[in-house]
Amino acid sequence: MAINYFDYISSFTSKFKKTRVLNELVDDKTYQYLAQKNIDFANFIKQEGFCSYQNGLFSFVNPLLYNSYLELPNLRNVYSGNDVVIKTAFGDLITSDLKHNTVNSHHYTFYNEAYNCGSNVGYLITFRLTDAAFLKNFSKKMLFKKALEKFGTLQPNENFGFPMDFPWKQEKHLEKIENVLVYKTEEYFHLLSNKYQ
Fold this sequence. Notes:
Elements: H1 10-16, E1 20-24, H2 28-37, H3 39-48, E2 50-53, E3 58-60, H4 63-66, E4 83-88, E5 93-96, E6 104-108, E7 113-116, H5 121-128, H6 132-139, H7 141-151, E8 158-161, E9 181-184, H8 185-195
Antiparallel strand pairs: 1-2, 2-3, 3-4, 4-5, 5-6, 6-7, 8-9
């Protein structure tokens, strides 16, 4: 019998309960969409809401909106059919195969690359997101703190990012505070789509 990781969801909710910001309620249409795929995740999201944590370091987002961003021309969704469940402050996304509960993929949007980051959305929430090393690496946490000091708190429809015309031969120098910009998220993904033509 498979483990239901949502039985251990308190490991997440107890860790992040005091860092919730920018909470949005889940409407019935979205709940029904999620419930058809994964009732445990749907119930978790209905209780938590589409919400950002740790001043916006990462957020649970509405897949009915965010799935469309990865369908833009030239943006690669390695595991087709997956739903976007998490956005980082830098516009990186985690998609999950909610229906089959198998693959979580970390989509580095600026670099247009995706990597498998384990299986089962319940495991992702209860054990990966609560792991300090994982959170630090996937969210650019140190750079986020500097960007927060410089720009202040992001709105739900914003994310940090980098200049679209940055020379790729200097890519290793890219992730520094002097290169960070604030984007409207929808505009950000359309700019990325044009960038990768």
